[in-house]
């Protein structure tokens, strides 16, 4: 069995999707459709940048969703089938598109609104990656202003919260950082994603998600907030809403896919973000890039 994995923010890069646009008619059709739906030239932004604008969450989210859909067409051309899908944060929308739960147009409209709702919280917080600590080991260094947002692997955790709160965690870890027992890296983000600071964005998206047409999935979907596969539509919707402020349990997602009998992971989208991340979770089965 195969699992398709879809990347989230951080996978954007100038030139993304260009090769697929030029060689796969169905991929070209998707990007042309995205331009029409969004009302601006997403193709030019993806192909030519500037990277500063492409990294802005309100543009990054539609770009990554569209690019992953284009790579899905590439996978279809290559005859690669899939039994499970999972997406990292934003990538969960791409996974739902691949599972037939949402249409391309509805998915694009959702991520466009999600990006704008999250961008409205810009400047109110930040995020940092902590490498070398498990979830239990990191807990004593946390404070009320910070949460563990992304559990990417057993010892790679992204924290999210107020700037002051993140500063305090870094200060508390300083001795361990200096002795290189722990690595602490600030992320280049404009807000505290997957934290209570996104509550307004979650509130804004709730009715939109509830009122979007969701179809029965044609394969198992792994939700970020549980890390477990499901085909239940109400659960899928509820999890999609709560993941805006909730955790991305990626480590659990990959291990649960492995336990389900997955023989091969495929990263479907631009770059190798998830392929590299998976190496910190399990070496088998391997992850190939489409």
Descriptive account of the structure:
By secondary structure, the chain is α/β, with parallel strands linked by helices. It folds into 2 domains: 2-121 and 195-289, Malonyl-Coenzyme A Acyl Carrier Protein, domain 2 (3-Layer(aba) Sandwich); 126-186, Alpha-Beta Plaits. The protein is 47% helix and 16% strand. The protein contains 14 helices and 10 strands. It has a 6-stranded mixed sheet, sandwiched between helices. Strands 4-5-3-6 form a 4-stranded antiparallel sheet. A hairpin with a 2-residue loop joins β4 (146-153) and β5 (156-161). α5 runs parallel beside α6 (91-98). It is globular.
Task: Annotate the secondary structure layout.
Blueprint: E1 2-6, H1 18-23, H2 25-38, H3 42-48, H4 51-55, H5 57-77, E2 84-87, H6 91-98, H7 104-119, E3 126-131, H8 135-138, E4 146-153, E5 156-161, H9 163-172, H10 174-178, E6 183-186, H11 199-210, E7 220-222, E8 229-230, H12 233-242, H13 250-259, E9 264-267, H14 273-279, E10 287-289
Parallel strand pairs: 1-2, 1-9, 2-7, 9-10
Antiparallel strand pairs: 3-5, 3-6, 4-5, 7-8
Helix pairs in contact: 2-5, 2-7, 5-6, 5-7, 6-7, 7-11, 11-12
Outline:
The protein is of the alpha/beta class and about 290 residues long.
Features:
single chain; 290 residues; alpha/beta; Malonyl-Coenzyme A Acyl Carrier Protein, domain 2; Alpha-Beta Plaits; 2 domains; 6-stranded mixed sheet; 4-stranded antiparallel sheet; 14 helices; globular
Low-confidence spans: pLDDT under 50, at least 5 residues? Answer: none
Radius of gyration over alpha carbons? 18 Å
Number of alpha- plus pi-helical segments: 14
CATH homologous group name of the largest domain: Malonyl-Coenzyme A Acyl Carrier Protein, domain 2
Overall CATH architecture of the largest domain = 3-Layer(aba) Sandwich
User: What is the domain total for the residues?
Assistant: 2
List the strand order in the largest sheet: 8-7-2-1-9-10
The structure class reads: alpha/beta
Active site: 89, 194
Enzyme class: transferase
GO biological process, one term: fatty acid biosynthetic process
EC number: 2.3.1.39
